[in-house]
């Protein structure tokens, strides 16, 4: 069945903190080859409100039902922006998924620390991932060259964004899928499983680092394709 026959041909990809949309290139190439219309959000990472607004602008440009995908911090963004009328389903890629009224920071409470994921916060409140621990903490399965490019092209995030609560979690109303990297050194596995299970997500596991949105683009694309084929049947 083609995407047109199924009715969902639009996909919007939302990157996380410390990254930009270029890491989605493999997913973009894979999905456009299958006939999808793929758009990539460039988050300013200045606040949750700003990132949601950036995502909403892209959603407003879609010409029909859309699968909204978020990696890492992008999960918090799609949890809010996913309430947009165009969104038919959500895909969380080793991503945060707060509940209504919760903020990002709360997701870490009660779970194991991730000592290789080190954020250096400047006096202005913006954080970069530490240069020396970047590869092991964020992109251990990437090549040295790719990990270095990700490290050196970081976009810092305003750390105050992690304290902003979600108003209404879109996963309460939209069918949801999740891809979880089993070798993720940025988020505790129990935390990722807790959030995805609470959201009622259909979970796919893949051996990968936190950078699975780039290093496992084939698996991520397959899950997005599954979401596009099945979102209407799973509307809550």
Task: Write a brief structural summary.
The protein is α/β, with parallel strands linked by helices. The protein contains nine helices and nine strands. Strands 2-1-3-4-8-9 form a six-stranded parallel beta sheet, sandwiched between helices. A three-stranded antiparallel beta sheet has the order 5-6-7, with no helix packed on it.
Give a verbal description of the structure.
It is a single chain. This protein is of the alpha/beta class and 236 residues long. The protein has one domain (7-234): Rossmann fold (3-Layer(aba) Sandwich). It is 33% helix and 18% strand. It is built from nine helices and nine strands. The chain has helices spanning 3-6, 25-33, 48-60, 73-81, 134-138, 144-152, 189-198, 212-215, 217-230, and strands at residues 10-14, 37-41, 66-71, 87-93, 119-121, 126-129, 157-158, 176-181, 202-206. The strands form two sheets. Strands 2-1-3-4-8-9 form a six-stranded parallel β-sheet, with helices on both faces. The protein has a three-stranded antiparallel β-sheet with strand order 5-6-7, with no helix packed on it. Helix 2 crosses helix 9 (217-230). The longest helix is centred in the last third of the chain and has 14 residues, at 217-230. The protein starts with a helix and ends in a 6-residue tail after the last helix. 46% of the residues are buried. The model is unreliable at 1-5 (pLDDT under 50).
Which ranges are low-confidence, i.e. pLDDT below 50, for 5 or more consecutive residues?
1-5
Tally of alpha and pi helices: 9
Sheet with the most strands, sense and barrel status: 6 strands, parallel
The averaged pLDDT comes out at 95
Q: Beta-strand level of the residues, as a percent range?
A: 15-25%
Tell me roughly what share of residues is in helical segments: 25-40%
CATH topology: Rossmann fold
Strand order, biggest sheet? 2-1-3-4-8-9
Q: What general form does the structure show?
A: globular
- The tally of structural domains comes to 1
How would you classify the helix and strand content by structural class? Answer: alpha/beta
Name of the CATH homologous superfamily: Alpha/Beta hydrolase fold, catalytic domain
CATH class: Alpha Beta
Report how far the terminal alpha carbons are from each other: 23 Å
Radius of gyration: 16 Å
